[in-house]
UniProtKB/TrEMBL annotation:
UniProt record similarity statement: Belongs to the transaldolase family. Type 2 subfamily.
A GO MF label: carbohydrate derivative binding
Function: Transaldolase is important for the balance of metabolites in the pentose-phosphate pathway.
Family matches, as HAMAP family: Transaldolase_2 (MF_00493)
Enzyme Commission code(s) on record: 2.2.1.2
Catalyzed reactions: alpha-D-glucose 6-phosphate = beta-D-fructose 6-phosphate; D-sedoheptulose 7-phosphate + D-glyceraldehyde 3-phosphate = D-erythrose 4-phosphate + beta-D-fructose 6-phosphate
Enzyme class (EC, first level): transferase
Cellular localization per UniProt: Cytoplasm
Pfam families: PGI, TAL_FSA
Gene: tal
Keywords, ordered alphabetically: Cytoplasm, Gluconeogenesis, Glycolysis, Isomerase, Pentose shunt, Schiff base, Transferase
Pathway: Carbohydrate degradation; glycolysis; D-glyceraldehyde 3-phosphate and glycerone phosphate from D-glucose: step 2/4; Carbohydrate degradation; pentose phosphate pathway; D-glyceraldehyde 3-phosphate and beta-D-fructose 6-phosphate from D-ribose 5-phosphate and D-xylulose 5-phosphate (non-oxidative stage): step 2/3
Species for this entry: Hyphomicrobium denitrificans 1NES1
Protein name, as recorded: Transaldolase
InterPro entries named among the record's database cross-references: Aldolase_TIM, G6P_Isomerase, SIS_dom_sf, SIS_PGI_1, TAL/FSA, Transaldolase_2, Transaldolase_AS
Amino acid sequence: MNPLKQLEALGQSLWLDYIKRSLIDKGELRTLVERDGLKGVTSNPSIFEKAIAETNEYTDALKHFQVQADHSISAIYEHLAFADIRAAADVLRPVYDNTHGRDGYVSLECSPYLANDTEATVREALRLCTAVDRPNLMVKVPATPAGIPAIRQLIGRGLNINITLLFSVNVYEQVVEAYISGLEDLKKSDGDITKVGSVASFFVSRIDTAVDKQLDKLGDKEVADELHGKAAIANAKLAYVQYKALFSGPRWERLAAAGAKTQRLLWASTSTKNPAYKDTMYVEGLVGRDTVNTMPPATIDAFRDHGQATPDAIEQDVSGARAVLAALEKHGISLKDVTDELVTDGVQLFAEAFDKLFGAIARNRHALTDGKRADLEIVPGFPEMKSAYENELEVWRKNGFIRRFWAGDKSLWTGADEDKWLGWLDIVGHELAGVGLLQGFAADVKQRDFTDVVLLGMGGSSLGPEVLSETFGQQTGWPHFHMLDSTDPAQIKAIERAIDLGKTLFIVSSKSGSTLEPNIFMDYFFERVGVVRGKHKAGDQFVAVTDPGSSLERRAKQLGFAHIFYGVPSIGGRYSVLSKFGLVPAAAMGLDVKRLLETALFMERACGSDVPPSENSGVKLGIALGIAATSFGRNKVTIIASPEIADLGAWLEQLLAESTGKHGCGLIPLADEPPNTPDHYGSDRFFAYLELDGRAAQSQQDAVAALEKAGHPIAKIHVKDIWHIGQEFFRWEIATAVAGKIIGIDPFDQPDVEASKVKSSALTEVYEKSHSLPKEEPVFRENGVALYADPRNAAELGRHNTLAGYLKSHFGRMKAGDYVALLPYIQRDEIHTRAMTAMRTRIRDKTHAATSLGFGPRFQHSTGQAYKGGPNSGVFLQVTCDDPSDIDVPGHSYSFGIVKAAQARGDLDVLVERNRRALRVHVKDVDAGLVELARAIDEALE
Ligand SMILES: O=P(O)(O)OC[C@H]1O[C@](O)(CO)[C@@H](O)[C@@H]1O
Ligand SMILES: O=C[C@H](O)[C@H](O)COP(=O)(O)O
């Protein structure tokens, strides 16, 4: 007789500890059932990892699934695994029916990532049950301290549960208690206890492996030889004694009388791991009535070939088993310690199998969509960076940091209130679900034939829309887009001149609704439109984007705005571009918002909680940024982007600087610094190169290649087409929050921005009262240029006869790793940008210091946070000017020019207060002044 069939005759059910698609497709599983009396199947994460990641049996199914639509990694895994589980369950169904639910099960394990969370395990088991939708499914729940209460709850809800990772008799007793109590609960709630099937998977071979290792360490060969390979079966024998004891007596009899089935012991981990042992030892020693043995194919084949089935082997020599365990204790080997560790290791091993499996699926998903080319390549630059980066990836994987991140675990960061600021993680899906609203708005804009759209907002409320408009350009048949984020009167005038006031739509954008600039821009343009259209009609041309309940919402209602769109309060400004703050302007520009979001969703999935760090695009980038800054002082994130997507740099500056630059640390992002050869850079740089497919600038490519050769770390990002800009938004948001964790700050607050606002508004209040700003005395004046410095900076600079002398002294204060920030409060136009860029390039090339350029007050809502709150390594040169013509702010005695002056002064005061090296250059005439300044800088750097 087939020895496997003998097991059946001896009261033991044979299950298969294995699954893969071909086993079912080729009919092998059916053969096992028919020929060998197979009565069940068990799977686990390692089994699926081997099946899916290490064979090509799933390639077509994966492709087919992905062709229909993009899916998350776990959705792909579940699609593949559930299909196998269902197919196997269908093969086993007759066994299930014939044995009235005693056998015929197929087991599927709950995610090992949830093993320490009772509620999540319960939810997961219920979800799996519904999704697989087979009565003969058994859900595997681990016998961890969190798993045990879940078992009771799930049995209490009538689920079939296979308890896994069970190693100790003591824990087994708790498992049986959970099972019996669960049945009692079910009975009490009038559930059908006759239908519940359950097994307790008692692992064997792993115990021997662990105990043998300890025996070998004892250094006593005799003892080791005596006890090697004995612990597991001895332990199992005692578990079986308990099985018989626990499923007897009045409490159990009551349930049995109502039709309950015992929870059988299932011998798991039955392949021999030590080749010196007989390959059937964990079958032969464990034959027993009312038990199950789940075996991998090789063990099944071995037992069929040469197995010996001894009746009731499990009940033989129980005293010998006790003696074995006592001997182990006597020699200092604690079975409790061994089994405790095995549970922890078991969870970790299965989690690692999932990591590997999900990583493999992520690679396949990417290859199917994006081909072979990686969308992100981290070039570490030098060996120490490479190993630190790889170590950190492993730290993130081992500790499940990505899952904690997505679960909103604030202790991952500083434990402040980071969990309240993660609404951007799933905003793309939400916006897609409600995209009709935006499409309706776009139709309204188009139908109303606006010539222009002007967005009034600062920082996170304007930089994203600016990127979209700069990247996509004006859409045919749609209004021309403008963005106002400056109080400079000339800038405001320039916009007013460029538009037709009566045919322009104004989008007032402010999350808080209380930011000064958008409010006074709104007041100004509302009044101007009122003049053209009549006061009562002006509201028709205004739209507000704001968070619910803000003062802007109130005003928009009072003024009769055409639309009010709401932001999500759990999304901070700089993370808001994929919410209404980016999408409303995008819709008004005529962009296909749905396409933008759908493309972004791909990146959301690529950065998902189920994508291990080594494959997780945003996490890899964030780890590289964080490690480069914290371990190697490379915190100057130099952004080089293909010309068509270059404006991303401005958005990235805010995201990186405002998120990380605080408490004296953080990243200093630098956009638009023209690249040069490697000898022009210090060793404080980290480069981010964003290359738009097919549109790369040769000069940038050459520069980056040279930087790579010179050993600078670089994140190379391949942007497939401009629609992928939405992916960059998401990737960098994740990366920033990850880098924030490594840097050790809260990436969602901006503690130092407020300080400048307070100082500026104090100054405007003074102006309201006295009609002048407090008087200031320059430390130096020459050729229409005046220099202002506080006493400390003035003393440090000393006295000089020329502007160049002061500048020389100012730049002379720089040390390696410092940067220079040029902060002009002048109109931001092409000419001025070019002039200022030439100055910064000159400074960089001469001093090798990193340089940044921020027009005021725009940068105050962006890089300003890092200048004031980040590392004290900035050397600041503020540039202010006389405004030849000014504009009054309606309802106030101050003008835009006064506001701008107050903002510049307020910000400088804070820089000074924070002990920064800062100096203000005031020019009477902007154009002549910039020429003079450039000349003086040249001279100073000679
Ligand atoms: O959208 P709001 O509330 O007007 O804020 C604009 C910007 O100002 C800041 O709060 C800081 O200045 C930014 O974080 C924000 O993006
Ligand atoms: O339920 C089955 C278990 O997951 C399996 O038997 C574990 O076996 P292993 O110890 O050989 O990995």
